[in-house]
Amino acid sequence: MASIWLVLVLWIYINDTKKGIQALSCAKIHTPASMVLAGSPVSVSCSIQDDCPLTKGKNFHVAWKIDNHFAPSNLSYQESNRTYGVIIPSLPDAGAFILCAVCEEQENLDSCQIVNGVNVKVGHPPSVPKNLRCSLSLTFNQSFCCQWDPGQEMPNLPTNYILHIFREMSKNDRYVIPRGMHSYSIPSDSLFLEMEINVTAVNIFGNATSETLKLVPLETAKFDPPEIKRIEADVFGCLNYSWSLAQSQTWLVTPLCVELRLKTMNNQLIKELVLPFWKQENKINVCDLPHGTNYSTTMRVKYNSLSKWSNWSDLKIANTLMKAPTGSLDTWLKVNDQTAQLYWKPSEDFSANGWDLSYTVESKKPKKALCVTRENHCFFNLPELVETVYLRATNAIGSSDHTKVPVYPKRGLGSVSNLSVHPKSEASVLITWGRPASPHVTGYVLEWRPLCETPAAPLSFTLMDKNNSSTIVTGLRPYEPYEISIYPKYVDGIGHPQTLMAYSSQKAPSVAPYLNVTEINGIEMVLFVIPACIGLSLLVIIVVFACVGKHERVKMCLWPIIPDPANSSIKRWTDSDSLQGMPHCKEDMEPVLMYLSHFSLLDLAENKPFKSDYVKEDQWSHDIDSHDESHPSFQTCVIYDTEHDKESVPYATVVFGGPYQNHSSPPPAYVRSDSTQPLLGANNPGSPPPYENVSPSGGVSQVQHFATFLQKSTESEENEEHWDDFPMLRSLEIRNTDHI
């Protein structure tokens, strides 16, 4: 069954391929142009071959398809016996595929077989070039360059551009622009003659010409910044400038338009001079300038009013000649007892005529300089009976005339009424007031100062005529409070002030706060938290193991154990005893040597029973000669904590059962342990009850001086292994010596 289906599919494929091959060799198609103008009709013809297998011995007709859609039959016609044609009124802007098909039946279009086809494109005339502009370059290689915007272009329709230049009394020039370029540079052989320029776009469907541009080439030039060579000040209030064009344009000799800009060193614009059609004399004289003032000057040039300005030249600094200051100063004197505060500022007729001004306040009777400063205020002690002080300004050339400052004898006269402040803008306020009742008012003094500056800023003031009842104060800082006061001035004194605190108008914040949002993602947290947890866990494990493994050492470092005699007892040791009485260690290993922190030597006496509550040192000492020499034996009493024996610090007392042998050497001084740790309970009223000592012989003898033990060599060898168990007691061993 599968083989039958396979044979059927192969037969269908071969049959279709055969029909396709037969169809491709059946007809030839022809059209006058493969691209037509948009909106114009298109004609296509199809010639059927005589040996076409689709038509041989058959009745057929020809149908036309436009982009897979059959064209109406009224558009087609038969030109000759086997040639058929179609006329299409117009095609879409994107063009279309026109196909020729052979149909066996007259009305059934499904039986049509396409035999050939052609792709016909649609084109448009070129767009009009726009924004034609030309400029002259005055660098070392002079050139006149024109540019334009081409508009929309078709990628499959080449467009050429032609640049036309028309000059008066000269031949016209025509430049064909290379394909793909929308600018062109031509030689600049005539800079001062007017010319007309346009550009034409050309393709197979037509051409389009831009608007005509009329210009003089030099008008389109933008000069390089000029250079100020030198500035001289040889006359009061005047500056003489010497200048030239840039080095690349010094060859040009023609009148130019020049502009100078003069600013003071505090960036205040003083003069801005525009000199039209200035002759190329390289000299400019500027006068009517303030004396003794520093200026920064820059300049620029252009050809005429239609041209573009060049960039500004580099700054040059110069100053006019100085002379002594002229004019008077506005002053405001405030007196409190004999302390004076004098403020001043330049009046409208004052001219510094120089820089680095200093100010001098002085009195004539007595003749005395009260203050010399470079500020605009001065505080000083006012001499008695002085009615006028004098203020003058001084520069390097000289001093100005004196400004008289009267000292008013009367203070606290009538004040103004209804003082009010109204915000006008961010930096200004409107101040209004009512006039005093007295008719002897000569004027007003308005003063203000900011309240939030540290250190406190000096006050500002202004003088006003007596007819004023309002004024506007400018130059305030927004959002800051100001203290504003107004004083009326009288013929013989100053009135009492009226004071208000005011703000200029506020506004919304100019800059929004910046919100910095940091996103932390289920990866960054893992990378941070997991290592932190692992490290913390390792640290805890290490600390726990260290504490467990070094428990005794850690405990002794943190809280050392001090033996408590109240909870101790006496253990008897002889030279035949072993280490059975020593506390056993936790580990099953060889016993560790026990180091004593204290030991004493006791001599047992028959006549003194050992029943005292406390063993005192004065009970342990007596003459060594009074003892019997025949019994050189000793006993050791070890006192240790019975309740906490494994954690106690042991110490020992050596008790001798018999006297030491007589020694001819002088008795040594009494030796005690170097330990500085006190025994608990000693001389402590709050200590527990004393312990009970059990004496093996019923008494305790006094402590004897250290002497040698008489031992036989065999006894030393037998007891050698016992001494190894008690390293501190071994230090008490004294070898046998002959001394009788």
Produce a short descriptive summary:
Strands 2-9-8-4-5 form a five-stranded mixed sheet. The N and C termini lie far apart (141 Å).
Tag the structure with descriptive keywords:
740 residues; 5-stranded mixed sheet; 44 strands; disordered C terminus; transmembrane; cytokine receptor activity; signal; Ig-like_dom_sf
Would you kindly provide a written description of the structure presented here, covering whatever features stand out?
One of its GO terms (molecular function) is cytokine receptor activity. Residues 1-23 form the signal peptide. Pfam families: fn3, Lep_receptor_Ig. Keywords: Disulfide bond, Glycoprotein, Immunoglobulin domain, Membrane, Receptor, Repeat, Signal, Transmembrane, Transmembrane helix. It is a single-pass type I membrane protein. With 740 residues, the chain is mainly beta. The chain is 10% helix and 37% strand. It has five helices and 44 strands. Strands 2-9-8-4-5 form a five-stranded mixed β-sheet. The chain is flat and about 145 Å long. The model is unreliable at 577-590, 604-649, 657-665, 667-673, 680-714 and 735-740 (pLDDT under 50).
